[in-house]
Amino acid sequence: MTYAWHWEVFLQPAASGDSTYLGWMLAGLRITLALSLSAWVMALVLGALMGVLRTVPSRLWSGLAAAYVELFRNVPLLVQLFIWYFVLPELLPAAWGDAYKQMDPFAQQFVAALVCLGFFTSARVCEQVRSGINSLPPGQRNAGLALGLTLPQTYRYVMLPMALRLVVPPLTSEFLNVFKNSAVASTIGLLELAAQGRQLVDYTAQPYESFIAVTVFYMLINVVVMAAMHRVEQKVRVPGYIGGK
Amino acid sequence: MGYDFDWSSIPGALPFLWDGMKVTLEITLTAIAVGIVWGTLLAMMRLSAVPVLSWFAAGYINLFRSIPLLMVLLWFFLIVPRLLEGLLGFAPGSDMRLSSAMVGFALFESAYYAEIIRAGIQSVPKGQVAAAFALGMSYSEAMRLVVLPQAFRNMVPLLLTQAIILFQDTSLVYVSALADFFGAAYKVGDRDGRLVELLLFAGAVYFIICYSASLLVRYFRKRMGA
Amino acid sequence: MIRRAAVIFSFALTTLALPALAQQPTGTLKKIKDSGSITLGHRESSIPFSYYDDKQQVIGYSQEIMLKAVAAIKTELKLPALQIKLVPVTSQNRIPLIQNGTIDIECGSTTNNTERQKQVSFSNTIFIIGTRLLAKTGSGIKDFADLAGKNVVTTAGTTSERLLRKMNEEKKLGMSIISAKDHGEAFLTLETGRAVAFMMDDALLYGELAKAKKPGDWAVVGTPQSREAYGCMLPKDDAAFKKVVDGAIAKVMSSGEAEKIYAKWFMSAIPPKGLNLNFPLSDDMKALYKNPNDKAFE
Q1: From 1.10.3720.10, 3.40.50.720, 1.10.645.10, 1.20.810.10, which CATH number describes the B11-223 domain?
Q2: What confidence tens digit (pLDDT) does each residue in A45-85 have?
Q3: Considering A6, A194, B65, C240, which has the largest number of Cβ atoms within 10 A of its Cβ?
Q4: Is the CB of residue B199 less than 8 Å away from at least one CB of chain C?
């Protein structure tokens, strides 16, 4: 294999002058983390809301929530991102579209990627929350209503506290997916981890080192998230259920 | 300012797009087939009492689940073929894009299938295994005749859902410049300066296929009364 | 001085190696002879250098020159039935694919520079571009100085991206630089009004302009910031192979054939939609055709 390994490239001053190539990677890592974490918060809030709507005894609301899930689940993430970034601003009223396009380019890319990942992931979170709620014995809802609680109160005080604890383990893998999926943001020019890796290939002509470094960073993220979620899972598990003690 | 849509590139490009769809389907089906077989083996290893096997399976599954698919495909596209050439003496320079994408996909998806299948196996009540043993079956007979058939029945909806995800994920093979359906649409759009139109078209096609498939999954789920 | 010595040295090596080569090809040539096939790397949408027409055939200026080189290889190896395999490449994977031997040669729109020469070799230059701007007519953007404080788009991983960043820092222009994934996306960014200008190789800008829905709305402006030489990429340190390819390119240029190929791709209607780039032959290109060489500009 006629390949010249040069691991020291990471310590060389980068072309931008103010940093090393390792500094570029770390800057990319920060954006990956910021993007993924904020998209995750958005997905949790929207997903929990939609998951609840999926289970309410109203055809209209549960139908709307079902359509929402189908829409975001059945189009590839890459296509969705492109639509958020390039197509939607053109379809908005001209004033809004122009206001968005006058924003700082980094902010535009970040917002598009955040909204895209948030909606995409929320559809998946929604399905988990729904199956969590559906896995509760029907007696819980009935008991809540029989006690004179309204439906929202039954959700708020009886069903959700239980259901949300049950869905923590399956949500762990969705959480991990957010980080991995955030790599598609590189396709609209956001300089996150994968994009920095690609940029390093262009600037240093050392493709293998760059790929290996990026891969290792993703694995580290994965290990940290798994460890954190493991602790959360232990905290919230319900005694008496499988996985509980 | 409004966007002037111009869909005129699509009719002429349909044969090329269809070729791309065939590549997409080929990759999807291979990955499903290999993924289920290799995933079942991995799941059984993971649950096995032999420490080496269960460590290997756990390591494999965690490794593949921790890396973005995009990176896995890049690895299989750029680095693994070169290693194989050295080890197995393949003719250097043979065009391995399709095969490397298929292998990368299959190995990657196996890790996800293994977890689904493991959950499926664990969903079978312990008493069933005990009963099989009590009837004098060996471990492999108990697995083959008692546990796996029930496990797969429970898993069908999840396996199909994963297949739909996989079908969408194939769009990432554009990193190896392979003209799958998404790649073909992008290339036509880039060549003619009509990216927006071609990508909306691709999105609509994916939606129709995946939505129909998910209706099918729902039908299965109903029929099995789950 | 050292450079000159190196040139003489490598020349000496080549001449020494020649008599042996006549009987026994080595390296890439041997591989091609043994397998009876050559694998060509091409681009898919690099208009008009290397791209697919509507029948998915690879066509373009660079592709035609690459086929001339293949013809010379056929003659050199006395292999009239040489099989040609085509592999599409992207700007991200083309260097690794040459390095790992998946492709034997790539002629597209690849700049020859000293950094890349550490990983691959380059043939004689096939095209010389200048990096300029594409902007809306009547937008008031006439040159780089007009970009201060504005959004400017370029394609990720190109020399233009580097130059733009450097200029921004040195001249304190306060531009916001958008790096799009490919030229198509970069032009879309310009077309949808997110950026006031698109900096890129002039030949590619003429290509994007020709694709635009209203070509009359756009113009290529600005003083060229750098010159770049496009070459065919070859495996590193394979002098015998490079010699055959270089010879073929030099012959195309000195015979006047190159000018005809240029006129066909840059001055007349090209497939698939009958676009005409109207990009006249530059002085740099005229000089190159008179004196073929493999000099990198940076």
Answers
A1: 1.10.3720.10
A2: 999 999 999 999 899 999 999 999 999 999 999 889 988 99
A3: A194
A4: no
